[in-house]
Amino acid sequence: MESHHQREQDLNQHIEKNLELQKKLEDDLLHANDSKEEAKLERQIEALIKKRSTYQKELTTISLQKREALAREMPYVSFDELDIVTKFILGMQPASPEINFNITDVTQKISKNNLTQEVHFLLIMGMVKVKEVHRFIEVNAVLRPDFPEKLKAGFVTEYQRLLKADIRGDALFESLHKFSCGNSSDLKKTAAGLAVLSYLFERCEVFER
């Protein structure tokens, strides 16, 4: 999982540099006066596009492998993993009550927040453990009555911070997922974080209704 995470970062960096170089070559092409130079630049641009396509295909493959691994791990998420991923979140400062998080249909909520089928699939996966998360929260609330509100406040605070950074749609969900598992690449923690995020999404504690 760690190697996948590093490879993903490397591929994204390659794609970013590839796009920057393509833009430079396209600018050069606009100002080229020689037909041979133009042909050379066009070949270089074409090669960059092909290379970027290869990077993107590999990213897609890694994404599918990660999703499959997460799906295999989800059934084994226990109170131990949930306890680990919720500890950091509980320390967040409360968010301001600026956003309406009233109950709404999950499908409508996915649409309103511009989330794709990829996120929908992750939510379905995470909801396998929603009852377990609910039971975990109930158990902890017996000893710490403020546990549910603190957990919610941690997520909403991070959600609002990301919104202010103009992060939306799938990128917003992905950022919250990373937050929910402490940016861990450990499969069990990643699965536990997704379960908690899915629980809060279903209850409309995060994302607009």
Give a short summary of the structure:
The protein has nine helices and no strands. With 209 residues, it is an all-alpha fold.
As a whole number of angstroms, the C-alpha radius of gyration is 21 Å
Shape: elongated
* Strand element count: 0
Helical percentage = over 70%
The biggest sheet amounts to: none
Name the poorly predicted regions: 96-104
Structural class: mainly alpha
Separate helix tally: 9
End-to-end separation in angstroms reads 33 Å
Question: Per DSSP, what share of the residues sits in E-state strands of 2 or more residues?
Answer: under 5%
Let me know the average pLDDT.
Answer: 86
**Order of SSEs:** HHHHHHHHH
Verbal overview:
22% of the residues are buried. The chain has 9 helices and no strands. With 209 residues, it is mainly α. The two termini are 33 Å apart. It is 75% helix and 0% strand.
Furnish the topology, listing elements before pairings.
Blueprint: H1 2-31, H2 35-73, H3 79-89, H4 106-112, H5 117-126, H6 130-143, H7 147-164, H8 169-180, H9 187-202
Task: List its salient traits.
75% helix, elongated, 9 helices
